[in-house]
Amino acid sequence: MRIDLRSPCFLYGCWDLFFSLVYLFIFIFLMPSHEPWTRFLTLFFPGVLLVGGVYLIARGPGARWVGLGLAILYLTLCLLVLASLSYTIGMFRGIYGPLGIGISVISAILMTMTVFLVGVWPVFQLRAFWPVKRSS
Hints:
With 136 residues, this protein is an all-alpha fold. The chain has one domain. 82% of the residues lie in helices and 0% in strands. It is built from four helices and no strands. Helix 1 runs antiparallel to helix 2 and helix 3 runs antiparallel to helix 4. It is elongated. The two termini are 30 Å apart.
């Protein structure tokens, strides 16, 4: 099996592998969750990314569709996190006065970080794996 180092599957597979290891490190060592449901979710999504990245690097059958699915999954996850953070901003700003304003500012900063950490890279991956109709 020969691996093409310049193919989108290899490049985005390496990025997926890198991001999954970073997310797993963060969710296991820096911000561990003690609730079973949140623990499952914080380990499930990086695990899916890890398996998908290895599959992209190995260029399994349908690897481009796996890359497209990973990009859509993480864009959806980014939108869900942004929606929950915007809900937090609205709830705390209206209820708790000055403390709520502080929490709202922190949530707004987290929204910006979420776009950079979870939202930008899947857009490029989506663009790389989007099916293009070739003219002959």
